[in-house]
Design brief:
alpha+beta, S16 Ribosomal Protein, Chain: A, five-stranded mixed sheet, rod-shaped
């Protein structure tokens, strides 16, 4: 008998399933861990159970489902955020089904069938969300291209009258130039024609006196 000594006490550790932050500033990336509830949030942990990446849509989550369920069965308490993630991945449902099997409420086959049906439905919802997001992005790109095309067409339409005016002015200048050249050619032709007429008149005047002199000489000889 050990007098003066207190009996040995078994101290249970409060375990929390929570998120431990990693990643860069502005782009957080989390580990899902089982840790001593008395330790710091980003301190030592007992086991890493998965990851959570909120930087993509939908968020990417990896989880050791069986390991997480064991921690839950042993009394580990998830934080509010961790509980939402565990519910999203089916850990809380699987713990509930296992409890039902242990109580005899359903068989293991029935529990497995229920869980697989839930997983299929969940994956279908996630895939539907992913498809909708992809279609929304494609539509946004198409709308942006259409808007850009409309702006370019408007700019071209606004610039076209100025180009046409410039062409008209240019054409008008060309027409005036052609007319001026035509007038110059007409003037040159008129001058040439006048000069030719003057030359012809001078020749006739020169030839006429000579002819008259010959006629007078002929009369004298007679």
């Amino acid at each position: 008998m050990n007098r003066g000594r207190e009996p040995h006490k078994f101290i249970t550790m409060p375990v929390k399933i929570r998120l431990q932050r990693h990643g860069k500033k502005g782009k957080p990336f989390y580990w899902i861990v089982a840790a001593d509830g008395r330790s710091k949030r980003d301190g030592k942990y007992l086991e890493k159970l998965g990851t959570y990446n909120p930087n993509v849509n939908p968020a990417e989550i990896t989880l050791d489902l069986d390991g997480t369920v064991k921690w839950l069965q042993n009394g580990a308490q998830p934080t509010n955020t961790a509980r939402n993630i565990l519910s999203y991945k089916g850990a809380m449902l699987k713990k509930h089904l296992i409890g039902g099997v242990s109580k005899g409420a359903l068989t293991e086959e029935q529990a497995e069938e229920k869980f697989n049906a839930w997983i299929e439905e969940k994956e279908a919802k996630v895939e539907s969300k992913r498809t909708k997001l992809t279609e929304a992005k494609d539509k946004e790109k198409a709308d942006a291209l259409a808007a850009e095309k409309a702006v370019n067409e408007k700019r071209i339409a606004e610039a076209t009258p100025a180009v046409e005016v410039a062409e008209v002015v240019k054409e008008g200048k060309s027409t005036e130039k052609e007319k001026e050249e035509g007038r110059r050619e007409e003037t040159i032709d008129d001058v040439a024609e006048q000069a030719a007429e003057e030359a012809t008149g001078a020749k006739e005047e020169t030839e006429t006196p000579a002819a008259e002199g010959e006629a007078e000489a002929t009369k004298k000889e007679e």
